[in-house]
Amino acid sequence: MAVVRDIGASLAASGFKKVVLYNTHGGNSSLVDVMARDLRAEFGLRTFALYGSGGISFEGVSEQEKAYGFHAGEIETAFLLSAVPELVDTTAYTVNYIAKVDKPELLKPENASATFAWLTRDIAASGVMGDPRPATAENGARWVEQAATRIAAALEAMARYENLYHP
Predict the structure, then answer these.
(1) CA 59: distance to chain centroid?
(2) Which end of the chain is more exposed for a tag (fewer CB within 10 A), N or C?
(3) Residues with Cβ < 8 Å from 108, sequence gap 6 or more?
């Protein structure tokens, strides 16, 4: 957080008016929100937060995977299969989830009113949190294109954004 603050200070001192904090690591979302607010308050920067793939729907992915496929599951594996298939070891796939969507609980790992703290090792020694088996290069390429389009639209909206209440 100190590094992001220092970058914000430098940007403001250099005359920049806007900054985007782009986060693709879900575990950092709350910190990004805090930093966005702090950069706005301390330096007057119009600060925006952009997350992951820009909110695309990932058509064809199961609800279980959408909810709890956090790392190296179908989506990330599809991205890699489309970009660098030689780095994907399909013989090493494992399937691991921290929760099940068909067994709703009061306490959830994230995105709920009551959550519990967790670490990757709580789910799987392999680091896989999801199911990579359905991943295809074709889906990965399609989702990358959709994400690029959506992220570009968000960046354009951020560039045009003007606060209506305070210039």
Answers:
(1) 17
(2) C
(3) 99, 114, 115, 116
